[in-house]
Amino acid sequence: MSVTGVILKVLYIKRGKISAKSIDVIFMQHKIVSLTLIFSFAVASCVNAIVVEKARCDEVSLPITSRSFLIGVTHTFKLNGTLEEIYSTAGSVADVMNLWFANVPWYNTTEHLKKPETQGLLWLINSSGLTPIFQLNFWTVEGGKVILQIPPYMNSTTTNLGTPELRQLWIEQAVNISRDYHPKYFCIGNEIDTYYWNCSQDDFDNYVSLVKETYNGIKAVSPETKVFVVFRLDTIDSYKGWFLIEKFDKDKIDLFGFTSYPYMLGYPGDAWYERPSDMPSEYYTRIINYTGDKPVVFSEIGWTSSELLRGGSEQEQVEFLLWFLEHTKDMPLEIVSWLCLHDLRTVEEETNPNAKPNDFVGLKYKNGTEKEIWIYWQTLYIIPEFPVAWLAFFSLILVTLVVILLHTMPIKCSKKHDQTLKDNKDLSNY
């Protein structure tokens, strides 16, 4: 109680106007009212901030009004852009970011993370408000072929994912990373069905058992880390590979991840789906027939804006995002990541013989110019992860409880005060 409050309390008691007990109750009421007003102001500020942000994108309408999932984007560079600028821009429209290291074999990841330049990169990611998604991947492409990536001192002709020495090295890498960084998310295999279809079907079961052992190792040193693997959804669709998901022990995996570029189905021939509206409505929801109640990560999604290479457009990018949100809104989503912040090539390079449709999936052009989808992605980012309606509802409940409390306290106080005055009067008469 403040000094002023103490003085007022003494004066009231000395004048006999009210008991010490009653004055305590009154001061308690004032405290409750003050706290309620502070809380209401905080809620109003929060709601106002949301309303203001939404007003900035009032010309944009999304199929969802709140989201329970995180969104991400890959930090592809614009022309003449700096690292700080790229990560700052990414942090303004994303919660998470895939931590990929080009040309770094998985067995060197621990050492690579210790380098000053990598530590600086992690600092930049974190300071931009982004959560890194750590990655280990066991396969790579060499000479146009998918191969198992093994250390140079191991025999490439006899080594597979069942080789004890390789398995131990893999688990050590995963455990060391988890112990040192305690990542929120850890992907221990990207587009793993690529290995099954293009390298070794016989070795895939060795990988499945390796995931279980790796999961146990990670959880032993970093229990809160969410572990997952990633499939190519569009390959599963075209090769009927759903059975690969069912090979995994769902007690030894936290999430199931997928990449998805539906416009690429049939490439380089005719597209299976020329527009997002051509896709079957269950294209994504059928996933949960195989993953059950496990949360789903879309680690890469996108649609090209290249008309020349795949008949795409800026408008089709928007259509795809809206279609995706509409048809996944009842799924247990954990993360949704758009592939590129910026296109990988300039518009002038679209005629380059090596150019691919995926080079033009960015939210922005290579020169930094915003595409039509940019404002839609911004809107997706700013919509609340907790519905405003629920926030208002809980605020109303709190205010109601306070009103009831304040209504009952004076009654009890008054009754006790009246009884005290009566007792004092009886004593004086006596």
Summarize the structure.
With 430 residues, the protein is of the alpha/beta class. 47% of the residues lie in helices and 12% in strands. It is built from 15 helices and ten strands.
Question: Can you tell me about this structure?
Answer:
- The relative contact order is 0.13.
- This protein folds into two domains: 3-54 and 390-429; 63-386, Glycosidases (TIM Barrel, Alpha-Beta Barrel).
- The protein has helices at residues 3-14, 20-56, 83-91, 109-114, 116-127, 164-181, 193-198, 204-221, 233-239, 243-246, 288-291, 307-310, 314-328, 373-382, 388-429, and strands at residues 70-74, 96-98, 131-135, 139-142, 145-148, 185-187, 226-232, 255-260, 296-301, 333-340.
- Helix 1 (3-14) packs antiparallel against helix 2 (20-56), helix 2 (20-56) packs antiparallel against helix 15 (388-429) and helix 6 (164-181) runs parallel beside helix 8 (204-221).
- It is of the alpha/beta class and 430 residues long.
- The model is unreliable at 43-56 (pLDDT under 50).
- The protein is built from 15 helices and ten strands.
- Strands 1-10-9-8-7-6-3-2 form an eight-stranded parallel sheet. A two-stranded antiparallel sheet has the order 4-5.
What spatial order of strands do you see in the largest sheet? 1-10-9-8-7-6-3-2
Radius of gyration: 30 Å
CATH topology of the largest domain: TIM Barrel
> Mean pLDDT, rounded to whole units?
86
Largest sheet: 8 strands, parallel
The fourth-level CATH homologous superfamily of the largest domain is Glycosidases
Whole-number count of domains: 2
Low-confidence stretches: 43-56
Q: Could you say which overall geometry the principal axes of the C-alpha atoms support?
A: globular
Q: What would you call the structural class?
A: alpha/beta
Measured by DSSP, the beta-strand proportion falls in 5-15%
Q: What is the percent of helical residues? A: 40-55%
Which architecture of the largest domain does the CATH hierarchy give at level 2? Alpha-Beta Barrel
The helix/strand order is HHEHEHHEEEHEHHEHHEHEHHEHH
Counted beta strands: 10
CATH class of the largest domain: Alpha Beta
Quaternary organization: single chain
Query: How many H/I helical runs?
Result: 15
